[in-house]
Amino acid sequence: MNKPRRQSTRLVHAGNHPERHLGVMNTPTYRTSTVLFPTVASMKEGSKKRFDTFYYGRYGTPTTMALEEAVADLEGGYRSVSVSSGLSAIVSSLLSFLKCGDHLLMVDAAYDPTRNLCKGFLAKYGIETTFYDPLIGKEIENLISDSTKVIFTESPCSQTFEIQDIPAIAQVAHQHNIKVIMDNTWSAGYFFKPFDHGVDISIQAATKYISGHADVMIGMVTTKTSQDWEIVKRTSSYLGYCVGGDDAYLTSRGIRTLEVRLERHQDNAIRLAKWFKKRPEVKAVLHPAFEDCPGHEIWKRDFSGASGLFGVVLNEFEDERISRMIDGMELFGIGFSWGAFESLMIPTYPSEIRSIGDWNPDQKYIRIHAGQEDPDDLIADLENGFERLNGKA
C-alpha cells in the first residue's frame, strides 16, 4: 500500500504499528527502566545500537519511538528525539553544536528561558551569544564571525510576533557552514515546514499544541539529516534527558487531533484579533495574519496558517486597571504555556528583556491564547474585561 501523502491522513497514522502490539491501534504505554536480554552476547550487541533498539528505558521505548516517528513525519525531518520539556529540547540542541569558545547568534525576541540560558548557563561555559534583530534577514551575515557555529531562530517571536525570514537567514548560514536551529512551537510543525525553508534542527515544546491538553511536559527535537540526529541523540543521552511512557503516550494521542484543534485555534484567534482591532482601548494587534504585523508578507509566503497565540498592545492604562481586567476574566485563565484547549491571558513586558530596538516601558502588552471555547462566549468575557479596564465595573 502506498504511504498516505496528505498531512491529515499522516497525522492519524504516522508512528502507529498495531501489527506490533496485538492489533492495538495506539502504541501502548511502556513504563520501564530495565530491559532484559536472553544472553550476554545479545546484551553486548544491543549496546552497539542502543539508540535504535530497546536497550535501557532512558534511551527509548516503543512508546517514545512511536511518538518520535509521528513528529518527524509531521515536521518533514529525518528523525526526532523526545526529551523532558521544551527547554530541554533547546538545551540539548544548542549543546550538540556549541562548545567553549564558540559564538551563537540568538534572536533577540526569543522565549525568555532561552535568553536566560544564553546569558547564564552558556556564558558560564565560555559560549558567547550575540542577540540579533528578528527582522534582520540576510543582513545577519554582518554579525557572523569565524567562531559562529549556530544561528537560533524563533518565528513568530514569543511576545512580539515578528516573522523571521528563515530562508534568507538559512542561505547565509549555510554559506558559512553554520547550523540553523528553529523554535517551531507556534506553528506546531503543521503551519510551517522547517526543512523546506533551510532549517537544520527544529525544536518544539510539545507541551503545547502537539500534546494539546495542558497535562504533559515534553520537548521534541527533529533533524534534517541522520548525522545531526545522531549528534542530538547522543547529547540528550549524555544529559540524561528522557521521557516517561505516560507522557509519550498522551502526546502521541494528542497529535492525532492536531489538525482539527489547530483549525479551531486559528479561527478563534483571528476572530478575537479582529474584535480587538476595533476597540478604542487597543493601540495595536500583533498577529502575523494581519498586514500591520512585522513580517506579514513573509508569513504569507512561508506559512500555511496561524495558530491561536497573538499579542495586543493597549493604550496607556495604569497597571492596576490592566490587572483588574485580567483578574476578573472567567474564561481566560492566567498562566504560562499555551497550546492547550483553554484560553489564556497574561501581561507581557518586552522592554524588560529586549536588547535591540526602542521598547517603551510604558507600553502595555498582553498575550492572548485563543482556546477552543465558543468565540461568542470569549468575546462576551472580553467585553466585561474592558468594562473593568475602563473603570466601569
Q: Give the C-alpha Rg.
A: 22 Å
CATH C-level of the largest domain: Alpha Beta
Beta strand count:
12
Strand pairing plus helix content: what structural class?
A: alpha/beta
CATH topology of the largest domain: Aspartate Aminotransferase, domain 2
* Biggest beta sheet summary: 7 strands, mixed
Question: What's the SSE pattern?
Answer: HHHEHEHEEHEEEHHHEHEHEEEH
> Largest beta sheet: what is the strand line-up?
1-7-6-5-4-2-3
User: Treating each run of at least 4 consecutive H or I residues as one helix, how many helices?
Assistant: 12
Helix proportion of residues, in percent?
A: 25-40%
Distance between the termini: 62 Å
* Arithmetic mean of pLDDT: 94
As for the number of domains, it is: 2
Note the topology.
Layout: H1 7-13, H2 40-48, H3 62-75, E1 79-83, H4 86-97, E2 103-107, H5 112-124, E3 128-132, E4 148-154, H6 166-175, E5 179-183, E6 201-204, E7 219-223, H7 226-238, H8 245-255, H9 258-277, E8 282-286, H10 296-302, E9 309-314, H11 319-327, E10 332-333, E11 343-348, E12 364-369, H12 375-389
Parallel strand pairs: 2-3, 2-4, 4-5, 5-6, 10-11
Antiparallel strand pairs: 1-7, 6-7, 8-9, 9-12, 11-12
